[in-house]
Specification:
Layout: E1 5-10, H1 13-19, H2 23-26, E2 33-38, E3 51-52, E4 62-63, H3 65-73, H4 78-83, E5 91-101, H5 104-113, E6 116-121, H6 129-135, E7 138-141, H7 151-162, H8 172-176, E8 195-196, E9 199-200, H9 210-228, H10 230-240
Parallel strand pairs: 1-2, 1-6, 5-6, 5-7
Antiparallel strand pairs: 3-4, 8-9
């Protein structure tokens, strides 16, 4: 199974559409279908109101549950959510700083276990909790910081997922060797010229001994991860244990 379709529910869907129209992702149209849903189209009044003040007081505004629910219902339904396994129906992700952090291992699982995703982008102070209770399968964050809106987070999540779809990136080996793909950072890389500003390409990469090259890359990958990302290194050690 591979990811085939992503729906985006957003106040600014053009930001996501434009962002995904470039590079390899922009050429992946035959591999995945992207559907952009304008949340304001489901507003209940002539002013296209999608937010309201928090019950009990407080700063900011919240996205209304009825508007969100109707936008979500244009793709799926509560009945489908209750009756069908997550892998066989649209799986709903709310982008939120309260969600679990996106990691490469998580992205690989999602890209291979879900045919269809709904990505909901938060805005203002957040969304009414009842929409989360009823419709959201999982909350997800791209980092421990706050954005003005979820559109840029949606771009990141979509880019990470789409490039994992077979055939989107031309070289399967390139994907397999990416940093974080196996829990480690990628080894240092070099190209021509052989010497630049007094720095040279390591001799082992130019000797043609593929076994030696692979051994060097493995050692460098481990050393680099241990030095630059000790958190990843400790996590990898725990996984192996």
């Amino acid at each position: 199974m591979a990811l085939q379709k992503i729906h985006f529910i957003s106040l600014f869907p053009d930001v996501i559409r434009d962002g995904l129209s470039h590079s390899l992702i922009g050429k992946a149209g035959d591999k995945i279908t992207l559907n952009f849903i304008q949340l304001r189209d489901f507003a209940k009044n002539k002013h296209k109101t999608v937010d309201d003040t928090p019950s009990g007081g407080g700063a900011g505004m919240l996205l209304k549950p009825d508007v969100l629910f109707d936008a979500w219902s244009s793709v799926t339904s509560l009945e489908e959510k209750r009756l069908r396994p997550a892998a066989e129906r649209p799986y709903t992700i709310l982008l939120s700083p309260q969600g679990k952090l996106l990691a490469q291992s998580k992205a690989k699982t999602m890209a291979s276990h879900h045919r269809e995703l709904i990505i909901v982008t938060g805005h203002y102070e957040g969304v009414d909790e009842r929409f989360i209770d009823l419709c959201v399968d999982e909350e997800m964050s791209i980092g421990d910081y706050v954005l003005t809106g979820g559109e840029f987070a949606a771009l990141v999540v979509a880019d990470v997922l789409i490039r994992l779809i077979p055939g989107v990136v031309g070289s399967e080996e390139s994907v397999a060797r990416d940093s974080l793909e196996n829990g480690l950072l990628k080894a240092p890389q070099y190209t021509r010229p052989r010497e630049f500003q007094g720095l040279t390409v390591p001799d082992v990469l130019l000797g043609g001994n593929h076994a030696a090259i692979e051994k060097w890359r493995s050692e460098q990958s481990q050393a680099r991860t241990k030095r630059k990302r000790p958190d990843l290194w400790e996590a990898l050690k725990k996984t192996k244990q």
